[in-house]
Specification:
2 domains, 238 residues, single chain, 8 helices, 68% helix
Length: 238
């Protein structure tokens, strides 16, 4: 029953995240109007908005115009579901909520940066606020030196800012710098080094594969935010 309820919550919030990743970069309010078809813009009823199941039932095609539905929607919903089941199983309920919402924000950033090469400021600052809330929760159980973690956050943010300035924005975006502030604060100095190493390593491997397969050119910009997120969860959980 616990796994079932976690899965349902994860799928519902995953549906919200999938809509947010589509609307936020286009400046469309998430509170404005019903869901609509990406192709013909017709409003969609709740029957075709059931996470994952509607995609399977409609065989991956829109019910109003028969256009192919992007696989991004069920994949985001499934990732959210897996995250919900994991975090609510592995952490105390008091911190599980915060970790899970950190996961949802990072998932949103991952998709938006991958598709549009931008990281909205409201997501980066929301991530930092949740990290500070997590520290407040932890302080009920132990005395943590939050100032040392804040120092680490600023240190890693300045490191990425240095790369941004040296490369004149070609090697690192300011969105990555703002995101690093929250991630570095949560990880601290030691895990932060693992995070930075894992981020650059995964980024380098993927960039090399794209270059070798001809799917990217040498001077083509590749979003670094997704690799920061992958490295962050590697350092935090593994």
């Amino acid at each position: 029953m616990f796994v079932f309820l976690s899965s349902v919550v994860g799928l519902v919030l995953g549906s919200f995240v999938s809509a947010l990743t589509y609307r936020l970069p286009k400046g469309i309010s998430n509170n404005r109007g019903r869901s609509f078809c990406d192709s013909c813009k017709k409003p969609l009823s709740w029957k075709v908005n059931i996470p994952v199941f509607s995609y399977i039932y409609m065989k991956g095609r829109s019910i109003c115009c028969s256009k192919k539905i992007s696989l991004r929607y069920p994949l985001i919903e499934l990732m959210s579901m897996v995250g919900a089941v994991y975090f609510f199983s592995a952490f105390p309920i008091s911190s599980a909520f915060v970790y899970y919402f950190l996961f949802l924000i990072s998932l949103t950033i991952f998709v938006i940066d991958l598709e549009h090469q931008i990281i909205p400021d409201e997501l980066s600052w929301s991530f930092l606020v949740l990290v500070l809330i997590l520290f407040i929760i932890f302080n009920f159980y132990s005395n943590l030196n939050i100032y040392a973690n804040l120092f680490a956050g600023f240190l890693y943010a300045f490191f990425l800012l240095f790369i941004h300035l040296v490369t004149k924005g070609r090697g690192m975006g300011l969105g990555d710098v703002k995101l690093a502030l929250g991630m570095g604060t949560l990880l601290g100095l030691y895990k932060g080094m693992i995070w930075i190493f894992a981020s650059f390593l995964t980024g380098g491997v993927v960039a090399s594969i794209l270059l070798l397969t001809g799917r990217a050119k040498l001077k083509q910009k590749i979003a670094f935010g997704p690799f920061l997120i992958i490295g962050f969860w590697i350092a935090l959980l593994l």
